[in-house]
């Protein structure tokens, strides 16, 4: 033991040792994140097909974005997506986690049931809902045949509802994950607070409002922050279900950048779109850090 | 004993070294393919590639199948790597690699191996950029009209030869609750361009399309506007899967199941579907129906019939960085050298192995599936006569092509008029002309 303590003492005194341990990760990060990241910023200033030499064009790609209706639509859809995911799944999962926290027997079954869609691959989830929403064989079509046509909608074919239909599918897999996260956070709240509140006559809603929410605030705010960031990076469900269509009604920045780079051979413009995505998410993270420094308990 | 053992060991070492030398004399070529179905992949490796290796024991080919060839290839080629034998998804993709100096000019091999005698002239033209040959097209495909033969016989409908006949069937079917055309794009959004291409070519005519592709006339000319208006009218009438909402929701398997079950009467799709149509029809698929095909009728007087709007599913080239260009050229030559061998590949696997060779009916085995044989020989005759249309994914540059299939959805949704749609297309097309991005157009 003495020998061991001695070695630990040496490692603490040598500032290079921690860097040595971190260096593999650092090298990987420089190679796969920082390098391509800096490269993207450069290519955003070029006209480049993705092959051969790039032609420097300054800020022309960003100027083009200002007049690009598809970019505007995609950005708007990202904002809508963010609003949806900051409200619907958060509210659903908070309520479900709170109710579930009072369940003593069989809680695990519910947790598993809620969590299961999250572990299924997005392709599988998407296919399930494509089948359920099929215009000729899905739920809506069957109800229509039975005389109840209220659900006979073209979920992935109607430009007015397609974004919300995809958000519904994504939320179906996502909200269960939030339930488990919030439930774990709620279990860290001191039970005596609820007991005191009950003695003071607080009902379940008041307990939720004044004990649960403040008690899980760091987790809640963190998940909201991550939800915002992920909402600007969303890609998989939209690409699988509609590829951004119809008529760009479900286009988001991620799908648009992908198509620009890999089908239109406009890798320079795609990089510029990607840079704006990074700027937006960077601004969100900066705002979060700023508020923390200002003393917000988040 | 020791010297004897040493002698033996030395002998073994010499033999092994010789073997090694023999082994090292064998060249290994890399090849990336985008074939997606297992049955096609197995055939390609076990019949096409293995056949070549048997004839050329000094050359081995390592085949890798890529789910997204374009993406994988682009990354590799840009990094200075990539396979020796370069397949691309079509001439417009090959052009991007040519412009980046990543493909080897093939003129030397074309002369050496006499390709002008073996390969159709128009197909060679498709691979020429600024007078130099860089690629050879593969997978000759054409848009055709598939129909449920059993349903047609029951209804007393003759396979349509003219627009009037096709529209009469569509109207009758629609009134009976049968979907006239089982179209949809849920699994492949670019499916939109199949229809845009067919309507442009079959209404405006291939001469007008060719002139526009050469930049000699704008896409906003009246005949193109009318063609897109006609396509939009078909969609708005509900002839495509009973409406645009269904169209966006249906996948390939849905469409073909509906055709096989008689829920739908017709499909306008590429000849590649002949390879898989059998999965949906007949006892094996649990139906008692049969399919057949006819050329898509022309949509306007003055446009010559039969008209096949043709495309190429892929191209083949040699990586400019390949250390074995001669061996790679041998493999390319193998694909085109023997018409009867190539005909056998079509016989075994269908239209997806249809290389652009001047086939004659006698090239095919006598018991060739009649629908395939008819397609290959009719198409070869029509194309050699010069009457063919131009599919958008083969002859349009990339940005224009993507706009064609994405922008048409704005026409169907009412956000754009056919005229505005074509004006936008024309503006993008002019930019691509200026950038030298127009794929070769055969003369």
Q: How does this model look, in words?
A:
The complex is a heterodimer of chains A (about 300) and B (about 450). Chain A has about 300 residues and is mainly α. Chain A has a single domain (about 45-295), classed as MetI-like (MetI-like fold). Chain A has helices at about 1-15, 15-45, 60-65, 70-100, 105-120, 120-130, 140-145, 160-185, 190-200, 205-215, 215-235, 235-240, 255-260, 265-295, and strands at about 45, 55. In chain A, strands 1-2 form a two-stranded antiparallel ribbon. The longest helix of chain A has about 35 residues, at about 70-100. The radius of gyration of chain A is 24 Å and the shape is globular. The model of chain A has no long low-confidence stretch (mean pLDDT about 90). Chain B has about 450 residues and is an alpha/beta fold. Chain B folds into 2 domains: about 30-140 and about 310-365, 3-Layer(aba) Sandwich (D-Maltodextrin-Binding Protein, domain 2), CATH 3.40.190.10; about 140-310 and about 390-435, Periplasmic binding protein-like II (D-Maltodextrin-Binding Protein, domain 2, 3-Layer(aba) Sandwich). In chain B, about 50% of the residues lie in helices and about 15% in strands. Chain B is built from 20 helices and 11 strands. Chain B has helices at about 1-25, 40-55, 70-80, 90-100, 105-110, 115-120, 120-125, 150-155, 165-175, 190-205, 205-215, 220-235, 245, 250-260, 325-335, 340-350, 370-385, 390-395, 400-410, 420-435; strands at about 25-35, 60-65, 85-90, 130, 130-135, 135-150, 180, 265-270, 290-295, 310-320, 390. In chain B, strands 1, 2, 3, 6, 7, 8, 9, 10 and 11 form a 9-stranded mixed beta sheet that branches. A two-stranded antiparallel ribbon of chain B has the order 4-5. The model of chain B is unreliable at about 15-25 (pLDDT under 50). The interface of A and B includes residues 154 and 259 of A.
Quaternary state of the chains: heterodimer
Bulk shape of chain A: globular
Assign the CATH architecture of chain A. Answer: Orthogonal Bundle
The biggest sheet of chain A amounts to: 2 strands, antiparallel
CATH topology of chain A: MetI-like fold
Overall pLDDT of chain A, averaged?
A: 90
> Which strand order does the major sheet of chain A show?
1-2
Structural class of chain A: mainly alpha
Q: Class of the largest domain in chain B in CATH?
A: Alpha Beta
Helical coverage of chain A, percent range: over 70%
